[in-house]
# Entry
Amino acid sequence: MTLPAAAAGRFTFPGTGIRVNRMGYGAMQLAGPHVFGPPKDRDEALAVLKEAVSLGIDHIDTSDFYGPYVTNELIHEALAPYPGNLVLVTKIGGYRNDRGDWLLAHDENFLRRSVQDNLDRLTLERIEIVNLRMEGPDDDIAPPMRVMRAMQEEGLIGHIGISTITPQQLQIARDIAPLVCVQNHYNLVHRQDDAMIDELADAGIAYVPYFPLGGFSPMQSAGLNEVAAEMNASPQQVALAWLLARSPNILVIPGTSRRSHLRQNIEAAALGFTPDQRRRLDSLSG
# Structure
């Protein structure tokens, strides 16, 4: 039986043998408001995770600084012992203080402690893929990347990804260690990474966009809504389907804290566009 998430097709992370459906799930929204504190409905959060896996999701994106600690604890409670095909991808390089502020932290001791915290809360001996989160173009990615490479050689992490990075940081990172994915802000109207996506596709490296509906102007939203109405789909579904159609190395990880919304997101994997619809969507960034 073909599960709904499989309609998006499959992707193999380079040099790993790890193969996932291109429709994944981002666990960030399972935490409380502003990704801080416990979920509003713990039972529903656990049910979302279980249903995601039952519908074919085999790639879940998480981090110990979501909550903090909340999403990893929920994932463990809902899904452990984990299905053999489930790939848990986490992110390090930041933390939340008692007020919920997002703060950057790239020193070696912190990065190592972050990996260990993820391992402990997820009850894993190794995390297959860990993303290093950067903050801006002026951040020096080389020192934390060298720590990531050392932890990979020690067997704590399997493979390395990077997040919120520039083309220059990407090149520096690739000179230090092989990468399997890049996670950046990208959508129909926020297209600054077009060249990067194509470069990564040529190298077989995954590109994982976040904020699929972020930054739309009223006119751009109207254009998206028009195509969505023609397709009898939601704007969110069309935006996700466009990302999947943009390049075969794009993996989407839409998040939600409701099962009904989860199913809607996964249904986007089966949507297809006419040439005219695709042209109109492509033109929204202009």
